[in-house]
Amino acid sequence: MSAYLPPQHGAWAFLGLPLALGLTQATWTPWLLVLAVAWIAAFPLSYAALALVRSRRAPRLRERFRRPFAVWLLVVLPCVLALLVARPWLLWVGMAYVALFAVNVVYARRGDERALANDLAFIAECSAMVAVVWGVGATPEGGWAWPFAEAPQHVWVLVAFCALVLAGSTLHVKSLIRERADPRYARASVLFAWGSLAASVGLAVWWGLPTGWWLVVPFTFLAARAHLIPGRGLRPAVIGLVELAAFVLAAVSALLARPL
Q1: Are 254 and 158 in contact (CB under 8 A)?
Q2: Can you tell me the distance from the alpha carbon of 105 to that of 96, in angstroms, rounded to the nearest whole number?
Q3: pLDDT tens-digit series, residues 103-150
């Protein structure tokens, strides 16, 4: 895989789901397109940056990632600067993301980027993007004021919804691939899937019935697929396609749950 594109294929779906969920609640503005470009391009930028952190004592490896870092920085930086001019309050959001990214840097320095705590930091970054997408669409006047106090409850439901989907996917994939020899991950995946299904009923009520019941649908699917325990011999590509189907189902369910 090229140094310009991370080999972590599932992470692209993690980036797309919060955008899709946020767009179901956002008022359209061209700035959402700029935000999407910055958000997607920030992933290969961060991948190159973390590779540079890991390779600080390996000159050849550092040379491999310097150019990709510079290229993606040239994509991300103009978008970020334009967004800050249009929505100055995004500076506070950026500071929060820098703090979360610092967690990723710590684990990269340790050479332990597959740690569950590091994954949870990435999940937090992704889930929060649901609210950021709403905020960019909801504040055409810009300003420095933090807009999230005015966010409708549906936005926060989708933040929690997104976090549950991504956390469940992370546990499930770990239990099938990297941690397939550890039965604790298989048990945790199943328990979390059923717990998320129960939690989704609460999210449906918080959202408002009857349309809120759509939010239960993807978790029913996720609970069923969690029983594909380690040892079934599924290929990573098949596992990835199942997770992608779950993400698409989650996005469609959120769209169908919108009040008429």
Answers
A1: yes
A2: 14
A3: 999 998 888 888 989 999 999 999 999 999 999 999 999 899 989 999
Q: Which of 96, 117, 142 is the last residue of a domain?
A: 142
**Residue whose token pair is 């609640």:** 25
CB-CB contact of 128 with 96 (8 Å): yes
User: What does the alpha-carbon distance between residue 182 and residue 62 come to, in Å, rounded to a whole number?
Assistant: 34
Say if CB 32 and CB 132 are below 8 A apart: no
CA proximity to 48, closest of 69, 75, 77, 70: 69
Mean pLDDT of 183-208: 95
**Residues 126 and 249 both lie in one domain:** no
What's the pLDDT tens digit per position in 5-49? 888 888 999 999 999 999 999 999 999 999 999 999 999 999 999
Cα angle 251, 123, 119 (rounded to 5 degrees) comes to: 135
Counted domains in the chain: 2
Q: Based on the domain organization, do 107 and 221 belong to the same domain?
A: no
pLDDT score of 260: 61
Structure tokens at 192: 């979390």
Q: How confident is the model at residue 229 (pLDDT cuts 50, 70, 90)?
A: low
**Lookup result for tokens 């820098």:** 98
Between 205 and 54, name the one with better pLDDT. 205
Cα separations (Å) of 239 from 17, 88, 246?
Answer: 17, 41, 11
Domain residues for 182?
A: 152-260
Q: Which pairs from 49-55 meet CB under 8 Å and 24+ separation?
A: 50/104, 50/105, 50/108, 50/113, 51/3, 53/105, 53/108, 53/109, 54/108, 54/109, 54/111
Q: Within this chain, do residues 126 and 2 fall inside the same structural domain, yes or no?
A: yes
